Amino acid sequence: MIYPNRATIVKIFCIGCLLLGCSSERDVETPTFTEYSVKNTQAFLSLENTLFLGSPTSIEAVSGGLLIVDKGHFQITKVDYEGNRLLSFGKRGRGPGEFQSISGFWPFENEYLVYDYNSFKFSTFDHSGNLIDEEILEENPVNSSTGRSIPITLDAISSNKILIPTGGLQGSLFAIADLINGDAIYTGNAVVEYIEYNHQDNMQTFSKGEIPDIHRNMVMLNSSSSAIYSFQQTTGVLEKYTHAGEQVWEKKLDIPAQSDLFDQISEHNRELGLDDFPRMFLYGRGMDALEEGVALLLNLPDDQPLTIAWVPEDGSKIDLVEVEGITLDGNSFRDGFTISPDGQHAYYLKRSKGTIYQFEWPL
User: What is the pTM of this model?
Assistant: First the structure.
């Protein structure tokens, strides 16, 4: 295997963060916070004790079990709620049903959709892991005229409609792209004007403890069967949209525990050496949208316990769930998090350790 040099890794990382994912009730009042504490956690699966796992990178709870994207084996694995393997499909390669780099996975009612960034390929499987269809895109339907021809991260609301962060193109934050007819709906208000990526400028800005302009339009995206949620990573603004791209509400979260977060990141980056890796200015580390609302895995200052913000679908309040015994890795930027469909348990994937934790969901 050929490993890219450090500059290439930083460039891919920064672009990936940027690409990460109206009329309405825009004036939702800022609510008070209701806090919950979870004490009992357990290691559900770990690389040390699970032979069929290679390097898990994301997880998604579904009826009857947990789906795991395993970049170590270039496949998707499903386990039951006892951790027993039920299904695995996919392998390394460029042929049908094979992958080079799985950077997106979505379970739908009758099929699974897998996105391979390396080849800009979308593969559809049935729930038994059999390949149904594949489509390789020739160009990005949103950013075809720019240097970012292939989005590293994106989201999907169906096997035919995907959500692509735009970085500010046409004054937007993301677009809803139709893979069948090629149409795109641009939505969300950009924080700053669109600019092209420049690695040297970015690293110089980080070394000053500042946020690069290209990161200010960074969003994290997730969707349910009826809604799209967009979280602005450098402003802390959460927005809800319909599948047609119409905004329903927006809310600045203002989480108290995050009040000093960017100051700490800024100080860390100012002290870095030339070859050190900067921390990204992010308010969120993961997101899981359900029919009842959306859960955000929060980025927090070092040594703070794992904390999830829950916002119901009407945007009326914010519940904070603090999980004792688990802390985040400061240098990580995207961890797996999901809530079981029955609302009984939540799961957190600590990617650096390859461990999936399970704990009771209190809401």
Answer: 0.89
